[in-house]
Amino acid sequence: MGGPGDPPEGMPEGAPGGGEDEYRSVVFDESFVRAARLQEFSAQERMADHAPAVRRRPALRRGLSRQALILVMLIAVAFGTAIYMGVRHPYTTPTAQQPAEPLRMTIIPLSPQGKVPGAADAEDLYAHSPAAQFSVGAEGLPLPAARRTSHFSDSQVIAALSTAKDYIVESSLYPAVLTGGQIRPARVLVDPDQLDQFDQSFEHPTADGHHEPTGWLVRFDPSRVQLADSKIRVQGTLQATEIDSSTLEVTADGTFVYALRSTGSAASVGSGDQTQVSLFTVRRELHFRFDRDDLRMHQAQLVVSYVQAGPLSCAEDSVTHLRPLLAGQTAKAGGPAGTDPYATGSATALCGSLATSAQPKV
After folding, report:
1. Cβ atoms within 10 A of the Cβ of 132, count?
2. 314 burial level (CB within 10 Å; 0-12, 13-18, 19+)
3. What's the pLDDT tens digit per position in 55-88?
4. Which residue in 351, 105, 349, 102 sits closest to 215, CA to CA?
5. What is the pTM of this model?
6. Residue 224 CA: distances (Å) to CA of 108, 195, 267, 301, 325
């Protein structure tokens, strides 16, 4: 049996005294060698004077590998970013949407103080009326420069203004709505929460301030009048403001002037000339509200509709259709002193008198 001085791998096979010893189970592989704290110098290195036989190797670094360290750092950065965005994210926390309010509407007929002026040509009437400098159609409702608010971006403000303008165009300038009886062009722009009120207004119209078709749109009785000129004169403004963190409001104030002619079957209120053209003026003040769903769906909530229209007879029903007095026709004046739909301010009477200054000078 080998003694303590025998080689670690034991005595060679067949050598005297061979057998198991304490080093038999040790495997001197490459990793074992590399882990050694002492390293023997080479023969060349030992030739130097006073060179020690061995040198001490630096301890191996037992830390994380470079790849593992980078991975840990990336995870830490991602986690920190997630926490920061959760606290300081730029998006408004969605809130429960409130149901749309019912539309409140007021229709003020304006009765002429004398005969309704008329002429053979619509352009001549426009040129001698307060609408002489008005634009034609939708150009009379320019969009203002959009400005972001505390909780709504520029694009969202533009979306609200554009939707409000589209509703006004479809409900005030579209010929199929004005004299054709169509309602769908305006209906598709109404918030779903208001569709029941909208539909009931046309199916069962009532003068209750909530269910009058003429509060939703401008429509004439097609059995009595027709458009004499498709170039409707318009002047109006749009303004957007933030009501709260989830609501925008757009206020629209516009005056619309229509050239009308009798269909030939209208029942005359006083004497009139069915061949001549007359002007009819509608002033509409509409208040729209938009939540984020409305902005995304291109729809609007109508909350206020204030309308002054004339010349009309206060004795005529203006709930379902507007029934204008045409050229040469007269009606008894009603309400207080003359109301001018071209002037600012709102009428307070249920029926007013159309100021002579609001009529063409012919």
Report:
1. 12
2. buried
3. 565 555 555 577 777 888 888 888 877 776 665 5
4. 105
5. 0.70
6. 20, 29, 8, 32, 10
